[in-house]
Amino acid sequence: MNRYKENRKIFFWLILTFSFCYIFKVTSIFYYPAEIKIAKGEEKDIEVSFPFSLNVKDEDSIVQSVSNKDSIKTFKKTYKIDGLNTGKAKFQLKLLGLIPVKKVNVNVVNRQLLTPGGNAVGVRLNTKGVLVVAVTNILGVDGKKYSPAKDAGIKIGDSILEVDDIAVKDAEHIVQLLNRVQDKKVKVTVERNKKRFETEITPIKSMQDNYYRFGIWVRDKTAGIGTLTFYNNESKVFGALGHGITDADTGNLLDVEHGNIMNAKIANIEQGKRGIPGEIKGVFYETENVMGDITKNSSFGIYGVLNDDFIKSNKARSMPIGFKEEVKAGKAHILTTVDNNKVERFEIEILKLQSQKYPAQKSMTIKVTDKKLLQKTGGIVQGMSGSPIIQGNNIIGAITHVFVNDPTKGYGIYVEWMLEQIESNYQLNKKFANSING
């Protein structure tokens, strides 16, 4: 009787263990990527565990016929896929070869070649119209308080684009326009959250300076230091920062009218400490050393076109990008400028990777391990955003943020997310790019 109970107990635990392993395999299949990228002319192995199998949903000339090697011992199959031409093919994960559980798209693409940056750059942006950073009352010449902008529905974060159908150039221009119309009601074109609307405002003459005003504080430009991530030698299109430039007061992403990046000289570095982010302080001159024009400011960096002089003077060599599926936890390095305006290589470690289906900034967690960089900066500091991350011989991403409580650590973004910003904007700016470089 005791032996029977012991056997039942052993059998129970075997069934429980098998069930756990089976459930683990079933649930893990849902985390399997829905899209797999393969560079044209390269191979990729896809490993699938029993009871699942991979079936070609539709034969396509871009992928060689799928072959598999059975392994009875491990209950796994390895499918070898060779990308022949650019394009897409569809595969189906099936349970016991019968029940479809998940679609997998195989996308064969050209592996882009990019030239890594690491150069310290000065960034200057001029906003589209003027950005409202505060809405205030006005003390009129009659001694009464007025709120013309507030009464017209103007809010912090709005961009004023036109006054009576005249495009607003900058803060000084809007003052000139208001004092031209004086106390007459004017039509104002406003942009809020990428949508435009019109309202009417009557300027009030201020007792303080006798100028006609709306009762708003505005900003029309911003400037700072960052790092160039990469550029394409053929199109001359560049990406930098890895994150967008936002207004310090509103926190809104600045809508770019035009801007420039310029060579910057490192003046000083404030070391990062626990709770206090460090900072690279640099200088640049707007009339000198212009490297290129900024055409886009997105949540994933700034983009534009470099001039011929910079490209000819830069001696860095192009290298292939790494797809997000190819990035591994472990050793890597960054390129950045912290001394003598020279781009240098510093060792880092990729601690954690995020499986991201859609673009996001915090793709990977990294840690600075290079002793020289730690001694110089304490880790990641402001101004290093955009420093390219390289693993093996591939550009895989860029630094975006620092951990405030641990400056040796920070976040990086996959380079694919940055390249998507260029692809979505390239056709729009192709004519502009040609006019600059032609």
Describe the structure.
The chain has 438 residues and is an alpha+beta fold. Helices cover 18% and strands 47% of the residues. The protein contains six helices and 31 strands. A six-stranded antiparallel beta barrel has the order 9-18-19-24-23-20. A six-stranded antiparallel β-barrel has the order 26-27-28-31-30-29. Strands 1-7-6-3 form a four-stranded mixed sheet, with no helix packed on it. β14 and β15 (195-201) form a beta hairpin.
What's the layout of helices and strands?
Layout (H helix, E strand, L loop, with lengths): L1 H28 L5 E5 L3 E7 L2 E5 L10 E5 L4 E7 L4 E9 L3 E11 L3 E4 L3 E16 L2 E2 L5 E2 L1 H4 L7 E5 L2 E2 L3 H11 L4 E7 L2 E7 L2 E2 L6 E2 L2 E16 L5 E4 L15 E8 L1 E6 L8 E5 L6 E9 L2 E6 L1 H6 L5 E2 L9 E10 L2 E12 L10 E5 L2 H7 L10 E4 L2 E10 L2 E9 H23 L1
Parallel strand pairs: 1-7
Antiparallel strand pairs: 2-5, 3-6, 4-5, 6-7, 8-18, 8-25, 9-12, 9-18, 9-20, 10-11, 12-13, 12-14, 14-15, 16-17, 18-19, 19-24, 20-23, 21-22, 23-24, 26-27, 26-29, 27-28, 28-31, 29-30, 30-31
